Amino acid sequence: MPRVIKILTNYVIGPIITFGVYVFVFGHLLPGEGFDGGMIVASIFILCIIVYGKEEMEKRISIGNAVFISVFSGILIIIMGFVGMLGLRFEHKYYLDNFLSQGTFSHLFSGGTVPIFNILVGLSITFGFYAIFAYLSEY
Questions:
Q1: CA-to-CA distance for 52 and 61, rounded, in angstroms?
Q2: pLDDT tens digits for 31-86?
Q3: For residues 111 and 95, what is the distance between their CA atoms, to the nearest angstrom?
Q4: d(CA 136, CA 130)
Q5: Which candidate in 37, 53, 90, 117 could, as Cys together with 23 as Cys, close a disulfide (CB 3.0–4.6 Å)?
Q6: Separation of alpha carbons 57 and 52, rounded Å
């Protein structure tokens, strides 16, 4: 890749990753959730694979670690869903029940378990799509 594209990519990485993390952390307050933020961050990782090459990105985030983070966050989503079924509040017993208390309206921790689910979905989508693209870039 030309040097200009690499320099411009360096300037774009930070703001877009920050925006993507903002979207999946504040997903319960905004129109957009974990999937949207995860795709924003994954697009930067994919841009880095295209600009710097797969080998350079492998030094920073290996495909094995990306798959592990994606699978582990998916397992945590399932576990949190079943914790809701245990009925820790003894009022409701259904999958993905909100077992955390709701805070003040329009604050970060006002959604109970929803922000945690958004963060886990964002991590799963980010590293899952990064791993898929990294595998496909070999061919």
A1: 13
A2: 667 888 889 999 999 999 999 988 888 899 999 999 999 999 999 988 887 777 77
A3: 16
A4: 10
A5: 37
A6: 7
Evaluate whether 115 touches 28 at the Cβ level (below 8 Å).
yes
Structure-block tokens of residue 36 = 């949207």
Residue type, 79: I
11 burial level (CB within 10 Å; 0-12, 13-18, 19+): exposed
Residue 138 in tokens:
């070999």
Name the amino acid, one letter, at 1.
Answer: M
Structure tokens at 33: 């959730």
Helix ranges (H only) for 1-139 are 3-25, 34-52, 54-60, 63-86, 114-136
